[in-house]
Amino acid sequence: MRLSRITDRIAEQKWLDRVNSRIHRVVTRVLPEGSVKDALHGVWLGHPVHPAMVQLPVGCFLSAAVLDVTTPGSRAARVLVGTGIASAMPAAVSGWADWSDAHEEQQRTGTVHALLNTAGLACYLVSFVARRDRSGRTGSVSGGVGMLFLLAGATLGGELSFRQALGPNHAEDAAHRGPNDWCDLGPLDDFSEGRPEVRDAGNVKVVVLRSGSDVVVLHDACSHLSAPLHEGEVEEVAGHRCLVCPWHGSTFRLSDGEVMRGPATAPQPRLISRVRAGRVEARARTYAGVPAS
Ligand code: FES
Questions:
Q1: pLDDT digits (tens, 9 = 90+) for 226-284
Q2: What is the layout of strands, in order, in the sheet containing 214-219?
Q3: Domain residue spans in the chain?
Q4: Which of 56, 107, 214, 232 to pair with 207, CA 20 to 30 A apart?
Q5: Where do the Rieske domain residues begin and end (predicted)?
Q6: What is the pLDDT of residue 286?
């Protein structure tokens, strides 16, 4: 059976939604919207922080497993297991922050991912205690079982990232999809002041915001999870005009598309725009953000 069939089944388990709505209430109470949650998402880094944070516990636990094979009873293995347990906590918190702004299917997979990791962590706690007197095989055996749980959890983590696309930049393709030449978006007078309007620019949807005789044109699919940004609201945040995503509240600065508030971590691509003879025109930037030739 292909692994994807199993992971698809997990994502289809609607009964998990009742559990998830309870967990969601707790997570949003403990981690309300704000700078702490944004930091856990990785807004400051411009990249999800959870994948980086799990490296430390995974590295510690794997290293301990190697020592268990090469140097049974090693004190260093106990230190590694203890460090792994301690560093798993902040990694888990950042994971729950991302989970709280995910689709239902992603949350179902995420909950099972967290359960497997929790089981793995429990095994490592047993392992840590059992290694106190450097005797017996309980420490290394429970560590080995913990590693199996963590591997299963990591598989679902990969599923979440690569197949269910929680974490990747959903606007990454903007620079590749054009339009490479100036594209007419209609008369300036058709756009109301400060109200987001959706238009087709070649084969991409864009959101247009008018400010007097000026316009800002952004890729319409939110970089977090592809929400239609033209259904969002314009807000002033820290002195900047911003567009707020209707789904999870990511807030993008209109001047350059930068993220002011998460959960998005990647900026929203902004097209180059101009008003010519009373009509709005736009063209894509290249990947590096400079005009396409
Ligand atoms: S889709 Fe989640 S913040 Fe836009």
A1: 999 999 999 999 999 999 999 999 999 999 999 999 999 999 999 999 999 999 999 98
A2: 197-201, 204-211, 214-219
A3: 3-163, 174-283
A4: 107
A5: 183-282
A6: 65
**How far apart are alpha carbons 98 and 41 in whole angstroms?**
6
Q: Whose CA is nearest to atom 2 of ligand 1?
A: 248
The pLDDT score that the predictor gives to residue 134 is 63
Whether residue 287 is predicted with pLDDT greater than 70 in this model: the reply is no
Q: Is the CB of 250 under 6 A from ligand 1?
A: yes
For the segment 62-83, the average pLDDT, to the nearest whole number, is: 93
Residue 171, ligand 1, Cβ within 6 A: no
Q: Whose CA is nearest to atom 1 of ligand 1?
A: 225
pLDDT value at residue 53: 95
Tell me phi and psi for residue 289, to 5 degrees: 90, 5
Q: State if residue 261 touches ligand 1 by the CB under 6 angstroms criterion.
A: no
pLDDT digit string, tens, across residues 189-226: 999 988 999 999 988 999 999 988 889 999 999 999 99
Domain 174-283 is found in CATH 3.30.1490.20: no
